[in-house]
Amino acid sequence: MAEPLVSSASLAVSLHQAGPIPLAAEFHCAAGELLALVGPSGSGKTTLLRAVAGLYRPAGGRIACGDALWFDAGRRLSLPPQRRRVGLVFQDYALFPHLTALGNVMVALGHLPPAERRRRAEEWLTRVRLDGLAGRHPAELSGGQRQRVALARALARNPRVLLLDEPFSAVDQVTRRRLQRELALLRQEIRIPIVLVTHDLDEAAALADRLCVLHAGRTLQEGQPESLFRRPVSPQVARLLDRHNVFTGEVVEEGGERRLAWGPWRLEVAEGLASLPPGARVAWYLPPSDVVLHRRGRPSLGERENPVHARVEELVVLGGMTSVTLAFDHTPQRLGFEIATHAARRNGLARGEAVQVSLLAAGIHLMPETSAAGDDTRSLP
Q1: Cα Rg of the chain (Å, integer)
Q2: pTM of the model
Q3: How far is Cα 371 from Cα 27, in angstroms, rounded to an integer?
Q4: Sign (positive/negative) of CA torsion 277, 279, 284, 290?
């Protein structure tokens, strides 16, 4: 069996140019780490992968893998793709249709003596659970099997970095989940930097050690998924991460204590208010998990922390969970959260119903108002 791919080299990328594709991106990926690049279409994700692979040459910046410098615009240095030892997996597989699965993997083994190529290719096919299918052509394989061949070919090059460009987007949902699981298992043997481009935030959160949020070619925030989902650095990042409980309030001081004024309420906030002066306008975000619905006629501890009144504007049953949207009298903005469907029914939730919820102080995350205006929001925890 092929030896595990192990490296101590980290990938460090810093690229910038005014056009034709604007870039102001910076990220790093340690050996054994999976970094997901997320952002809307046109945010530069694939361009960055192609730059790392040596298929695109930006106007400025630097790319290094450990001690090896792959690209440095200042020195006019740009190693060709074959000298960077990068494994690249595309969403459309990019397999040679006239070659078998075995032949496609052997293409990547040109650095080995001819006598070893077949054996090593067979080992890699076994490693991605394709033993017995070596003689089939791409047209005779399912989408998931083709993607496994593409992955085996990329890894057979013994790459220093693995780049995955929307690798599971061309397969059905069941196959997608299976491939995600297999990638997670394969990572136990692959200790090299892995960079994944995906539009699927659930996929990114499930697979990645860290996320890099991009917009218009710019790095806005980089960090662990849980950190970004709970504490986006700006309203823009919150929206890009599909987090919509973003509001605006004002810092006030009452009775020697600072609170966040939001409409008729004075909200307690666990962190961040002490560093802001009274009168400061701030954007703030609350994760849906930190919204607590009060049960009718049964007081709970949650009622003691930032209780607010609202009315149910929308209820959407999604199997065992129900999505709830609340409206308020003082703002056109809406608050969303999810609750178990049986709990929603037990509480008699219905459109137009008046309810009370608590906004947990530990979950309220403050963002300066300048961030809401779209200023530079990059934050590297």
Answers
A1: 25
A2: 0.86
A3: 21
A4: positive
Taking the C-alpha atoms of residue 281 and residue 115, their distance in angstroms, rounded to an integer, is: 70
**Cβ 308 vs Cβ 356: under 8 Å:** yes
CA proximity to 231, closest of 285, 290, 182: 285
DSSP string across 159-195: -SEEEEESTTTTS-HHHHHHHHHHHHHHTTTEES-EE
**How far apart (Å, rounded) are the C-alpha atoms in residues 272 and 259?**
10
Contact yes or no for 45/197 (Cβ under 8 A): yes
**Taking 90 as the threshold, does the pLDDT of residue 163 lie above it?**
yes
- pLDDT tens-place string over residues 5-55: 666 789 999 999 998 889 999 999 999 999 999 999 889 999 999 999 999
> Is residue 380 over pLDDT 80?
no
Q: Which of 284, 242, 235, 290 is closest to 263 using CA atoms? A: 284
The answer to whether residues 359 and 308 touch, using CB atoms and an 8 Å cutoff, is yes
Beta bridge partners of 5: 190
Tell me how many degrees the CA angle 380-225-50 measures, rounded to the nearest 5: 70
Rounded Cα–Cα distance for residues 221 and 26 (Å):
10
